[in-house]
Amino acid sequence: MAIHGDSARALAAIARFESFENSGIAGDIDRTLIGLARGNRQEALDSLQAIIDNIEAQRPDPGISALPLLRVNFVRDPVLDEPEFVDLREQLRGR
Asked: Is pLDDT at 22 greater than 80 in this prediction?
């Protein structure tokens, strides 16, 4: 949205993300997508690692239905194609 010059809509979307994140129902999958939307690379990377840690510990994530979006980079975020993110996304395959 902001890239197309509509900063007001972009700010409103970020506010909705933050409201959802603070609602207590957002999981690490959601936080990864929120971090990407904010442009916060480290937040997204940390949340992606947390997803893997939670899967290995068999802890559920409320946003599990969005996991395929991250596995295949359905959102087409170029950050998810950076080597660190690709390595973590590869660990999600088959899970």
From this structure: no
Contact 70, 92 (CB under 8 A): yes
Q: How many other CB atoms sit within 10 Å of the CB of residue 21?
A: 15
CB contact at 8 A, 91 and 50: no
Taking alpha carbons only, the member of 27, 29, 25, 17 closest to residue 89 is 29
Q: Distance between CA 70 and CA 79 in Å, rounded?
A: 11
Single-letter amino acid, residue 8: A
Q: Where are the domains of the chain?
A: 25-92
Chain-centre distance for alpha carbon 34: 5
pTM: predicted TM-score of the whole model, two decimal places? 0.75
Length of the chain: 95
Higher pLDDT, 88 or 1: 88
Q: Which of 33, 43, 28 is nearest to 13 (CA)?
A: 33
